[in-house]
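Sequence only, no structure available. Ideas?
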Amino acid sequence: MSYNLLACDLDDTLIDDFGIISDKNREAIDKLENVGKKFMLVTGRAYKSVLPFYKSLGLKTPVITLGGAQVFNKDGALIYKSLLPTDTAKALLRHAAKRNMHAQVYIGDNIQYLKECEEAKYYTDYTKLKGIENKNLLEEDFETSKVVFITDENKVPEEMEIIKEEFPELSILRSKGRLIEAFTRKVSKGNALKETIKLMGYHR
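Reply:
I predicted one. Tokens follow.
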């Protein structure tokens, strides 16, 4: 069987713990392009956070971000998005506060949260995104595709079950170590990939 496209995750897959793409991986990706195959990034990161890797690889394919909640074309134009209802996002933030757990939302190219803390700094240092403390976030109207919770790694399984019980209509997953993410049910990297390859003229 002949494959036309390879889709690859970023964190803990293509890059190492230091955020480096190995020379061996770069060479393999270049070889794909040389034989007419396409390479595409599919990641839980926001577009701004993945862009340096995208540019360094010289890619011109769409990029799937935020775990499948947003897709951008090669020019950086948003071609697909799936939003959490604002009331649901706010309920998730209130749940986090009640559980004494950090939570944040993506708004535009940045992340916002109710209170500055160690967990917020951990995330912004890792993703290179700008973090904004917004004490009035629950009183504002905003659009976001997911809510990210950050807690002690040992507490993640228990906290996930509690969130699932309170928000059964959502998709709840552990994306990395300390991170729990909440999306609408229809959001996934796989679903976004299915729709994106159709736009590219490929079939599964």
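The mean pLDDT is 93.
Hope that gets you unstuck.
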